[in-house]
């Protein structure tokens, strides 16, 4: 019996002024590759995996050369997956269709994705090199859901529990319906399954990946083929995604999600000027600060959260939700214990004119997620999972890599923005985003959090400056207010 190992990688990045994108990459490979071999190139999100048994003698140890299509056990043709798409959920007929379209199901899936995002944020750590945390709960949920298609018995139950606490019948069909709703907005999702020629995978897994996640199969022919797919899926924003193919590659699932939107109320570039962003009580950095004296947004003071909440709308059913605690300290664990994003969303008042200052920035974040997923209770997936739905033989997920980024400018945003709040006695309230903040990029219809995170420093490459004495004026000419200087409790290393 031939044994295999799985490489699982998740990346998120936003590389354009109006772009948020997520890349999900899952590779199923033959045994024989070591961590050191794959780790030679740190510029790509490729991480090798292991199994407990050696590979059969005679199995190739290198990246397989492509052969002809008709030799593939799971044939990657456009009509094959549609030939037999019957699944347990589908066999339930109208009952499953009705469940997947019910408002209660949509709310349950939305809450589950929100919960997973907050759990991840609570357990992720910042470093001096990476002071900001940006993740895509949607992308990570899709990754685990697609993996669950190939999981069996206890492993499937474990994944389903962490995805939705076993509260959603017909889960994959229900998630497919939510994805269809998201595709009607400015969120676009592209998926593809690349198969090694001759890979003896399960046809049902290929069929269901197509049915639920639109992941069409194709034969792996070359590194250039995969990089070109990524480049096309991201509208040319990510080039040369991989520098080499993992040795003994059997299966690669790629999911690219991106958002390209514009502010409903744009910022005038003529009013963008140098400002400051307060890192903590003593330190600040220079930033380009966008300014608008009458910016239309929803603004709320939430007494339970003890925070100001603002919603910056985009043109098509998407919004940037910003939460700023009164104390100026963003404690994710404390925040998550009181935060119901959908409920908060519904309580926001109508838009009004607000004087705002928003930092203009472009950031990136990358993190290995195996440790944090293990903390959440998914350690079995990395130790001894049953992934017999993908292929015969012991399979092991040994690593999950997440890479993300965001950008905000006068036209729109990639994944975030938000927060420093001061209420003024003037006719228009003032909302200055000049200290650490929590954000969620939301779909207005489904309330799915596409991206969320905490930004501690929007300009990490800039010199850190000393804050002046309390009561003095800062560089942009308004009084320094110690009550609104932020420091973030975010598990720094």
From TrEMBL:
Keyword field contains Transferase: no
A Pfam family of the record is Serpin
What are the UniProt keywords, alphabetically?
Signal
**SUPFAM superfamilies on file:** Serpins (SSF56574)
GO cellular-component term (any): extracellular space
Please identify the protein, giving its name as recorded. Answer: Serpin domain-containing protein
Q: Where is the composition biased (Polar residues)?
A: 54-86
Which residue ranges does the record annotate as region Disordered? 54-105, 469-493
Family indicated by similarity = Belongs to the serpin family.
Signal peptide boundaries: 1-36
Record Gene3D superfamilies = Alpha-1-antitrypsin, domain 1 (2.30.39.10), Antithrombin, subunit I, domain 2 (3.30.497.10)
**What is the species of this protein?**
Poecilia latipinna
Lineage per the UniProt record:
Eukaryota, Metazoa, Chordata, Craniata, Vertebrata
Give the Serpin domain ranges.
118-458
Q: Where is the composition biased (Basic and acidic residues)?
A: 470-484
For this UniProt entry, the molecular function terms from Gene Ontology, in alphabetical order, are: serine-type endopeptidase inhibitor activity
């Amino acid at each position: 019996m031939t044994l295999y190992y799985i490489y699982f990688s998740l990346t998120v990045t936003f590389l354009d002024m109006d772009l948020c994108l997520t890349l999900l990459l899952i590779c199923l490979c033959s045994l024989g590759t070591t961590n050191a071999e794959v780790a030679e190139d740190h510029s790509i999100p490729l991480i090798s995996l292991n199994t407990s048994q050696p590979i059969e003698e005679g199995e190739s140890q290198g990246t397989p050369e492509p052969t002809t299509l008709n030799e593939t056990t799971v044939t990657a043709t456009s009509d094959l997956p549609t030939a037999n798409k019957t699944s347990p959920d589908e066999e339930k007929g109208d009952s499953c269709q009705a469940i997947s379209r019910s408002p209660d199901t949509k709310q349950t899936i939305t809450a589950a994705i929100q919960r997973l995002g907050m759990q991840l944020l609570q357990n992720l750590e910042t470093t001096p090199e990476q002071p900001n945390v940006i993740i895509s709960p949607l992308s990570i949920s899709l990754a685990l859901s697609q993996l669950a298609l190939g999981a069996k018995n206890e492993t499937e139950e474990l994944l389903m529990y962490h995805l939705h606490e076993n509260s959603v019948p017909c889960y994959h069909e229900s998630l497919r319906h939510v994805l269809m709703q998201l595709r009607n907005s400015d969120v676009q999702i592209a998926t593809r399954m690349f198969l090694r020629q001759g890979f003896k995978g399960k046809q049902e897994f290929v069929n269901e990946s197509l049915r639920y996640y639109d992941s069409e199969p194709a034969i792996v022919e070359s590194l250039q083929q995969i990089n070109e797919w990524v480049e096309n899926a991201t509208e040319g924003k990510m080039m040369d995604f991989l520098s080499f193919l993992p040795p003994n590659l059997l299966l690669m699932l790629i999911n690219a999600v991106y958002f390209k939107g514009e502010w409903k109320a744009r910022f005038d570039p003529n009013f963008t000027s140098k400002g400051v962003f307060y890192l903590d009580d003593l330190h600040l950095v220079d930033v380009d600060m966008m300014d608008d004296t009458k910016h239309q947004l929803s603004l709320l003071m939430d007494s339970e959260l003890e925070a100001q909440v603002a919603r910056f709308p985009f043109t098509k059913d998407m919004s940037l939700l910003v939460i700023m605690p009164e104390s100026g300290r963003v404690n994710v664990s404390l925040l998550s214990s009181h935060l119901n994003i959908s409920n908060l969303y519904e309580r926001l008042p109508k838009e009004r004119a607000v004087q705002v200052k928003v930092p203009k920035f472009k950031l990136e974040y990358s993190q290995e997620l195996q440790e944090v997923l293990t903390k959440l209770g998914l350690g079995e997936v990395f130790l001894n999972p049953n992934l017999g739905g993908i292929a015969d033989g012991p399979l092991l997920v040994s690593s999950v890599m997440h890479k993300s980024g965001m950008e905000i400018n006068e036209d729109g945003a990639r994944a975030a923005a938000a927060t420093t709040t001061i209420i003024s006695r003037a006719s228009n309230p003032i909302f200055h985003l000049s200290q650490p903040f929590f954000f969620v990029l939301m779909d207005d219809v489904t309330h799915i959090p596409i991206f969320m995170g905490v930004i501690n420093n929007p300009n990490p490459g800039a010199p850190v400056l000393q804050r002046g004495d309390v009561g003095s004026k800062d560089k942009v000419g308004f009084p320094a207010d110690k009550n609104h200087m932020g420091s973030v409790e975010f598990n720094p290393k």
